[in-house]
Amino acid sequence: MRPTGQASKSQPPLPPFIHSHPEGVLLNIKVQPRASRCGIDGVLGEELKIRVTAPPVDSAANQAVVELLSDYLDCPKNALAILRGQTAKHKVILVRGHSVSEVWNHLKAVL
Questions:
Q1: What are the structural domains of the chain?
Q2: Which of 48, 65, 67, 47 is nearest to 56 (CA)?
């Protein structure tokens, strides 16, 4: 029997680009290298769109993405790893040692 008069306290759904992982949190991102400015540019489909001014040469854009996310998420650069997409615009980033709610709270402040 269901108790009466009590509302369900479910959490709001997470955006499609953020997922839980045993080591932390996964972020699906789309990178725009050689952009005019660096920053998080919103949500594009099921990915977080990130712009970096660095070119996609010699991992410069990847390094810029890691530095940018490190600043936005307030975590050390070594807590971030590119799991998929080393040479592609579509990437999967692992944020080690953080919970989904921690990462989401940092990101929703800039979205």
A1: 18-108 (3.30.1200.10)
A2: 65
